[in-house]
């Protein structure tokens, strides 16, 4: 059985990257011997805007890992590289999502034995961050320098990656559909009672931490426009996620637009056991992003068979079938998003969005991830044999 080592976060860390690595492990270990080298320090607390980096949920996906890596301590990078060299795996997978980890990943991959350097693959969830700065392109080139292969999770990321590395082999997959929290969706009225929502309300959901690029302010303004033109829709908005921005800015906007009785805010990291209530209570999930590559929130929405409204930015539109699994707003503007939300509530009378989403999920390319890994391993073996023969 071939051996794979994954370098990335998983339990006890929270968030989309940890969840992705957990799903990746569960998929791969069925066919391979898999070990995760996890972080004992992911972000220094001074750089982390939230209350905690850890998943405090009672219902949590606990994946076995070795907590050894410190993102800012070079001695730990040396230690991890030595362990990998000793284990001599067939493949080393780095999970990449932010240039902050540039020197850490470069340090580990540079210290690998010569033959192991040829077995390095980076899974790139993003190439640069959503809030990029002047130095990110340089850091990205450094961090990804030693990768011989890449697996990207959207066409957008593939296009961005080719600007940095035109001669590297790139494979494409998708994020998994996060259906592990799915429960009985017929309990909508029961879920709505927890938020004092009426069964006749049309409920839209903004889920996930709040940062400027995620466009919550755009959604709030679009709600104001929608209620003026379509008051009969009786829309309510649930905002569920920790604020990484100045919360007062959003509260002042809500006050100015007279929307206090239309918006319920839950400023906290939502534990897994409560996530279902927000999605079950909602009719529609809105992702009003100013920028994006792909989104774990979209795949979480699909996991609950919930349709989405997304903006046509980055790679988001790759994962939405227009007027079938969701609506694509042409622009990240209040007017465009309000029209998209209105369009959804008109179409749902005749279109079974839930059925369409379930059919789409069955074709999720993440289910083929083992085949991609097999192709990478075969490619490595071919290159090794050709060099021996030559």
Number of domains: 2
Shape: elongated
Q: Helix/strand-derived class?
A: alpha/beta
SSE string, helix = H, strand = E? EHEEHEHHEHEHEHEHEHEHEHEEHHH
CATH class of the largest domain: Alpha Beta
Report the total helices. Answer: 14
Distance between termini? Answer: 28 Å
Helix content: 25-40%
**CATH level-4 homologous superfamily of the largest domain:** Glycogen Phosphorylase B
**Strand order in space, largest sheet:** 3-2-1-4-5-6-7
Strand element count: 13
CATH topology of the largest domain: Rossmann fold
The largest β sheet comes out as: 7 strands, parallel
Q: List the uncertain runs.
A: none
CATH architectural grouping of the largest domain: 3-Layer(aba) Sandwich
Average per-residue pLDDT, rounded, comes to 91
Rg value: 22 Å
Beta percentage is 15-25%
Describe this structure in words.
- This protein has helices at 16-28, 74-87, 102-110, 114-117, 136-143, 155-164, 188-193, 216-229, 247-256, 272-281, 296-303, 334-347, 353-362, 369-389, and strands at residues 3-7, 33-41, 66-70, 91-96, 120-124, 149-152, 169-172, 202-207, 235-240, 263-266, 284-287, 308-311, 326-329.
- By secondary structure, it is an alpha/beta fold.
- The chain has two domains: 3-176 and 366-389, 3-Layer(aba) Sandwich (Rossmann fold); 185-362, Glycogen Phosphorylase B (Rossmann fold, 3-Layer(aba) Sandwich), CATH 3.40.50.
- The strands form two sheets. It has a seven-stranded parallel beta sheet with strand order 3-2-1-4-5-6-7, with helices on both faces.
- Helix 6 links the parallel strand 6 (149-152) and strand 7 (169-172).
- Helix 2 (74-87) packs parallel to helix 3 and helix 3 runs parallel beside helix 5.
- The protein is elongated.
- The mean pLDDT is 91.
């Amino acid at each position: 059985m071939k051996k794979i080592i994954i370098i990335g976060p998983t339990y006890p860390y929270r968030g989309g990257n940890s969840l992705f690595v957990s799903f990746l492990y569960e998929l791969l270990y069925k066919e391979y011997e898999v070990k995760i080298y996890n972080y004992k320090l992911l972000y220094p607390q001074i750089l982390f805007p939230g209350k905690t980096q850890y998943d405090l949920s009672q219902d949590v996906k606990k994946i076995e890992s070795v907590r050894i890596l410190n993102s800012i301590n070079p001695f730990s990078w040396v230690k991890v590289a030595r362990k990998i060299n000793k284990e001599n795996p067939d493949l080393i997978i780095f999970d990449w999502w932010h240039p902050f980890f540039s020197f850490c990943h470069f340090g580990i991959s540079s210290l690998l034995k010569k033959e192991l350097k040829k077995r390095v693959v980076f899974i790139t969830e993003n190439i640069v961050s959503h809030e990029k700065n002047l130095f990110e392109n340089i850091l990205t080139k450094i961090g990804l320098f030693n990768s011989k292969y890449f697996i990207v999770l959207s066409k957008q990321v593939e296009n961005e990656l080719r600007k940095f590395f035109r001669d590297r082999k790139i494979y494409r997959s998708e994020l998994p559909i996060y259906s592990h929290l799915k429960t009985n969706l017929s309990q909508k009225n029961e879920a709505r009672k927890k938020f004092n929502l009426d069964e006749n309300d049309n409920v839209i959901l903004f889920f996930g931490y709040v940062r400027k690029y995620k466009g919550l302010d755009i959604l709030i303004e679009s709600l104001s426009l929608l209620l003026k033109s379509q008051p009969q829709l009786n829309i309510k908005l649930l905002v569920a996620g920790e604020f990484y921005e100045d919360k007062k800015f959003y509260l002042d906007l809500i006050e100015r637009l007279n929307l206090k009785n239309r918006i319920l805010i839950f400023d906290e990291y939502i534990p897994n056991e409560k996530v279902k209530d927000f999605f079950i209570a909602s009719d529609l999930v809105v992702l009003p992003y100013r920028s994006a590559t792909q989104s774990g929130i979209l795949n979480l929405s699909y996991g609950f068979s919930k349709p989405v409204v997304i903006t046509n930015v980055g790679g988001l539109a790759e994962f939405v079938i227009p007027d079938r699994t969701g609506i694509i707003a042409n622009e990240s503007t209040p007017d465009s998003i309000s029209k998209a939300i209105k369009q959804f509530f008109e179409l749902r009378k005749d279109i079974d969005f839930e059925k369409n989403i379930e059919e789409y999920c069955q074709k999720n390319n993440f289910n083929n991830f083992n085949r991609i890994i097999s192709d990478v391993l075969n490619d490595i073996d071919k290159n090794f044999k050709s060099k021996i023969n030559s």
